[in-house]
């Protein structure tokens, strides 16, 4: 019998309180992911340091800018990045590190010179991606059950959804309400949506593991045009940063940078399909569906998590 089409309820307020408690109890207080408010503080602190590094701001100045005491801010930043704000400031002070945060396509090469290390798939996931067939896409999710939930992540509240075949949707959520799940429902209008925050929390800890040990393979199930899927596969194969033009050339379509950019922007699975690693031709960060501050924070987090164990900074 055909499943009923999806129905959506508004996200709870506060947005991630229940999911955060579930994630926190499973991983311990020191390894729990960030709430949305904590992530915004981290993003603002990164922007403050990037803007004011020449003045070498004190920890008290940075903490005051985000409304926290020095102790709590230092602890929050280190839990998120693996390095202290002072260590991050030391990296940004180096001209190469500044380039690595958004002004040159070869950002990773610059970052490695100042102690950041580790090219390749920086989140250490083995990802397989399966594209829906044209017939499945035409059914628009009919007879498919999607389990979805809102949970905490390193970048604030996150909506994660999966079918039996794999993760089909991952989006960062900036405010409570209807919009986040509405976009999921629009992408899969015939599916049966089942709210499951604990499952989303488990998925988050699998996507962003707190240890360096290898994670089990993660399956993705995507619905897109042949061209979009081709671009998304190219993103999964990235071994560092790129530009829209370089990505188009890699696909054998050097004149299709704009079309490639549109496909990158349509990516349904944030972070895992790393659209955040694509920059404009001039090396600037460019657009990001979930905000430039988040894109910058994502790039910083990728690098600093790798540097935490071996960066030589004071």
What's the SSE blueprint?
Blueprint: H1 17-27, H2 36-52, H3 59-65, H4 70-81, H5 85-93, H6 95-100, H7 107-112, E1 127-131, H8 134-139, E2 145-151, E3 158-163, E4 166-172, H9 179-187, E5 192-195, H10 197-207, E6 218-222, H11 226-236, E7 242-243, H12 244-250, H13 257-265, E8 278-279, H14 292-307
Parallel strand pairs: 1-6, 2-5, 7-8
Antiparallel strand pairs: 2-3, 3-4
Describe the structure in brief.
This protein has 14 helices and 8 strands. The protein has 314 residues and is α/β, with parallel strands linked by helices. Residues 1-31, 103-123 and 309-314 have low confidence and may be disordered.
Word description of this protein:
About 45% of the residues lie in helices and about 10% in strands. Residues about 1-30, about 105-125 and about 310-314 have low confidence and may be disordered. The N and C termini lie far apart (about 65 Å). The radius of gyration is 20 Å and the shape is globular. The longest helix has 17 residues, at about 35-50. Strand 3 and strand 4 form a beta hairpin. Helix 1 packs across helix 10, helix 2 (about 35-50) packs across helix 14 (about 290-305) and helix 12 crosses helix 13 (about 255-265). The strands form three sheets. The chain has a four-stranded mixed sheet with strand order 4-3-2-5. The protein has a two-stranded parallel sheet with strand order 1-6. By secondary structure, the chain is α/β, with parallel strands linked by helices.
């Amino acid at each position: 019998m055909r499943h009923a089409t999806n129905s959506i309820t508004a996200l709870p307020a506060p947005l991630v309180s229940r999911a955060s408690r579930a994630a926190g109890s499973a991983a311990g207080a020191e390894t729990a992911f960030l709430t949305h408010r904590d992530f915004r503080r981290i993003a603002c602190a990164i922007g403050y340091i990037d803007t004011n590094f020449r003045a070498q701001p004190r920890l008290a100045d940075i903490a005051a800018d985000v409304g926290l005491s020095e102790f709590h801010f230092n602890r929050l930043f280190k839990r998120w990045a693996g390095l202290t704000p002072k260590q991050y400031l030391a990296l940004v002070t180096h001209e190469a590190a500044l380039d690595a945060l958004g002004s040159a396509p070869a950002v990773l090469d610059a970052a490695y010179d100042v102690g950041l290390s580790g090219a390749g798939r920086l989140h250490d996931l083995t990802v397989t991606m399966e594209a829906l067939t044209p017939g499945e896409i035409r059914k628009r999710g009919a007879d498919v059950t999607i389990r979805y939930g809102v949970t905490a992540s390193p970048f604030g509240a996150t909506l994660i959804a999966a079918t039996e075949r794999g993760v089909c949707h991952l989006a960062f959520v900036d405010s409570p309400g209807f919009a986040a799940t509405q976009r999921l429902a629009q992408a899969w209008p015939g599916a049966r949506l089942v709210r499951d925050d604990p499952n989303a929390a488990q998925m988050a800890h699998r996507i962003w593991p707190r240890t360096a040990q290898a994670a089990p393979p993660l399956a993705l199930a995507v619905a897109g045009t042949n061209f979009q899927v081709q671009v998304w596969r190219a993103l999964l194969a990235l071994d560092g940063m790129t530009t829209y033009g370089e990505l188009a050339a890699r696909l054998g379509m050097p004149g299709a940078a704009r079309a490639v950019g549109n496909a990158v922007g349509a990516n349904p699975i944030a972070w895992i399909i790393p659209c955040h690693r694509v920059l404009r031709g001039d090396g600037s960060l460019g657009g990001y569906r979930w905000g430039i501050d988040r894109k910058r924070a994502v790039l910083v987090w990728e690098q600093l998590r790798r540097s935490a164990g071996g960066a030589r900074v004071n």
